[in-house]
Amino acid sequence: MQKIFAAFMLVAATCASGPLWAATDPVIVPLMVTVPGGQFSMGSTANPTDGNYPASVPVHQVQVRTFKLSKYETTVKQFRQFVDATGYQMGTDCWKLAANDWGMEYGQLSWDSPANAATEYHPVMCVSWNDAHAYLEWLSKETGKHYRLPSEAEWEYAARARSNTRYPFGDNPAELCRFANTFEKSGKAAIAQLTGKTREAIPCDDHAELTTVVGMFKPNAFGLYDMLGNVGEFVEDCQHLTYENAPTDGRAWTEACAKFHGGAMAIHRGGNYNSGAAGASPTMRGHAGLDNRSSVGEGFRIAEDMDDDTNRAAGASQSLTDREFEAGLIKEQAAERAKQAKRAAPPRS
Questions:
Q1: String of DSSP letters for 120-148
Q2: Total structural domains in the chain?
């Protein structure tokens, strides 16, 4: 990864046509929530299974250490700062919804396309697991901290927030619209327009058509927003088709990885705006290639070890305060709610 980081920094130095980002500009440091450690039962026997895709069995006990997880999914604004600072090159192809037999296609679309980046406070997508790592290495270098992806166990523990029900708030999928942007009434209509396909939706309306501004829904008991829905979130672990022989100490499982059609795969969690009641679960697992980019779609959330506080001073002078970031977010959330209310209003006669 050091070589990858050096390579894209060289690209930035040699290919930039003008000033991109000055070292004196404040780095947007993610707002972090402390997730208290504990033991939990990881996995579920209730999820559907397919031999080619990762299953959530066997259920097993895992001990997770206290760690930090970003309050929100990584936003377009945060990722744009990284691209502007480094000249990071990503290409312009991405999976997107389409009117074909499969319902999606690989074509021209990027992380900052208007369809994906409706506002700077939408979650960034059309980013791969490798892109997420490049961003995290840059952010760590700029701040003097050690940011990383969460392990799969950390992610599920944080998403469940000490609950033992199907969802963190209970068992009724109709309650998802209070906590998550998923495939419900508004999403069903919007996605049908793009794909020409329809299917059963979650019986509620969250008023979001595709992705939406982060933090629009109620947080879970740990104070984390959008752990379910909006965009799926990459974790550090590579693919394993079951939890047989999985670590029980909360660390990422990166050995003896299972390939898919010969390619290395990473795990993503939480479902997305196109997920129904089964997919929008804290136990459901998904996979994607390390270079796979999708707007259907995967993004990421940031983790940090508790002992990283010792390095906090190195980047403190370049950090946007919590108040500055959230002030902008609150304005964008208000604007988004106004748009949703306008869409939901009955037409004038």
A1: TTSBP-S--HHHHHHHHHHHHHHHTS-EE
A2: 1
